[in-house]
From TrEMBL:
This is Transglutaminase-like domain-containing protein. It comes from Flavobacterium silvisoli. It comes from the Bacteria. InterPro entries: CAP/Cytokinesis_protein (IPR052557), Papain-like_cys_pep_sf (IPR038765), Transglutaminase-like (IPR002931). Pfam families: Transglut_core (PF01841). Residues 89-151 form the Transglutaminase-like domain. GO terms for cellular component: cytoplasm.
Length: 379
């Protein structure tokens, strides 16, 4: 019986190897002219493979097999946009972990498969690495899996990169992955009992403090439904929960906080500028109306025109009030100006309403009764 089981295991392993081998060989046949852009690579994969599983395998294999680890750039990271990372990697066929992860992520997303770049740090042989790391999480046929195309491409020894495909980092079991990879955001542990950073240092892969299973599928779905600033805010909260154990985590934490402040700043400034502009215009139009009122509505115009002269500035004031109420996140740099503007707009309410009420009352009277409205000076 034992021999039969061993034979089945061997046959299963051989089948898996053969299955990947066929996909990998077909991926090797991508014409060179198609390998310079993500859409072209994805288009070839789509034309030659049908299942999500096979497509993702082809994307992983192409990324791991065609990009070499850029050892000199390991300690000299460049600040690049995602597009710049991908373009540079496709051109030079070199990169560090973030480049592998972004290229793989872009191909998979182009294939119509959901994928994310995951940031974190790693541990090998019980030692925490001295660099942060990036890898991927993909959802295949409704289930999340973990991939590391960088470690799957080979290894670095004595500052030299050795290319050697390693399938251990393709669709790695979440528990096994957590032995070496710790994401900054614990939802990407894909773990029903997420661990803290202290746990990771101590080789713990499941928390004993969590009584009920953590629904990471639901957490990821909620994450996907959030706006970008809300995503950052939630990530900041989760980083605090797992502990700011090392400089990698602190750097990520501070970057998120800075980016969130920057986002608030970028979003609030144009809105505040628009509100200031509209409020200034509202005041000018109201002053024009008051000047016209002081002339006893001369030269005479229609009732509709009189109402318009006060209704337009009032509507602009109301717009400013409503837009200020909608703003819930303001950067620290703009908080004083925001509060001052909000106070100024609110204090103007009485002035605008007074003029609007005057006109409404005036227009409700007969022509003979209207003259009495100007017997006393009104402000």
């Amino acid at each position: 019986m034992k021999k039969i089981l061993q034979l089945l295991v061997l046959l299963s392993s051989h089948f898996m190897f053969s299955q990947y081998e066929i996909i990998d060989q077909k991926t090797d046949e991508i014409p060179k002219q198609y390998q310079n852009s993500i859409p072209a690579i994805a288009n070839y994969i789509n034309q030659n493979f049908t299942s999500e599983e096979d497509k993702v395998r082809a994307a992983f294999y192409w990324t791991a097999n065609n990009i070499s680890y850029d050892v000199p750039a390991m300690y000299k990271p460049k600040i690049q946009t995602v597009k710049e990372k991908i373009d540079a990697t496709l051109k030079t066929r070199k990169g560090v972990c973030m480049h592998y992860a972004e290229v793989f992520n872009a191909i998979v997303n182009q294939l119509g498969v959901k994928s994310y770049v995951v940031d974190g740090y790693t541990k090998q042989f019980g030692k925490i690495a001295n660099l942060s790391h990036s890898w991927n999480a993909c959802k295949i046929n409704g289930k999340w899996y973990l991939f590391d195309p960088t470690w799957g491409a080979g290894y670095v020894k004595d500052e030299v990169f050795y290319k050697k495909l390693n399938n251990a980092y393709y669709k790695t079991d979440a528990a096994d992955f957590l032995k070496t990879h710790m994401p900054f955001d614990y939802i990407w542990q894909l773990n029903e009992k997420p661990i803290t950073n202290d746990d990771f240092y101590q080789d713990v892969t499941e928390s004993d403090l969590i009584a009920n299973p953590f629904d990471f599928n639901r957490a990821i779905a909620e994450f996907e439904g959030l706006s970008e600033p809300d995503r950052m805010a939630k990530q900041i909260e989760r980083l605090e929960k797992t502990g700011l154990k090392n400089d990698f985590i602190k750097e990520k934490y501070n970057a998120l906080k800075m980016n969130l402040e920057g986002y608030k700043n970028n979003q609030s400034i144009p809105k505040l500028e628009l509100i200031v502009s509209e409020f200034n215009l509202a005041n000018k139009l109201l002053n024009d109306f008051i000047a016209y009122r002081n002339k006893r509505f001369m030269p005479l115009v229609s009732d509709e025109k009189i109402r318009e002269k006060v209704q337009v500035p009032y509507n602009k004031w109301l717009f400013c009030q409503q837009e200020l109420d909608k703003i819930v996140d303001v950067s620290k740099e703009n908080l004083y100006n925001f509060n001052s503007l909000k106070k100024t707009v609110a204090s103007a309410q009485k002035r605008f309403e007074e003029q609007l009420n005057f006109v409404n009352n005036y227009l409700s009277k007969s022509t003979s009764e209207r003259a009495a409205f100007f017997t006393a000076r009104r402000k």
